[in-house]
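tool=predict chain=A
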Amino acid sequence: MPLKAQRIVQEWAAAIKPNCWPIGSAALICYLWTSFQEQTSMIKITSCKPDGDLRFRLTFSAGSIGIWDAAPLLGSNNTLFTIPLREPQAFARAFIDNGALAWPNGLELAPWTLHQEMDAAGLLSKEAA
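tool=predict ok
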């Protein structure tokens, strides 16, 4: 790409897409990433109800519902955030914070990541009308 064109792309990216890091023709990649980010960040958790000791029935803004089992996550990560949540009473204190699943100890799980993982595992179904 000619130097003049690169500068135009960089100026455009800086003005229109401030989260871009254009390097040559990378502005296109940045645009696709921004579009992906916008699409996935629109998915929010709208409801979380306990469904067993370490499970929640999650409802997503995309209209899907599924049972999320936290045992694999909590059992494989020995951190200050996850160890206390192995106790069912502490785990049940989850709440929704700006569409994310969160706990009073500061752990927060991105709704689009939960949605994507549950969808890939076949754990989601459409909410009945």
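The radius of gyration is 19 Å. Residues 2 and 68 are 51 Å apart (CA to CA).
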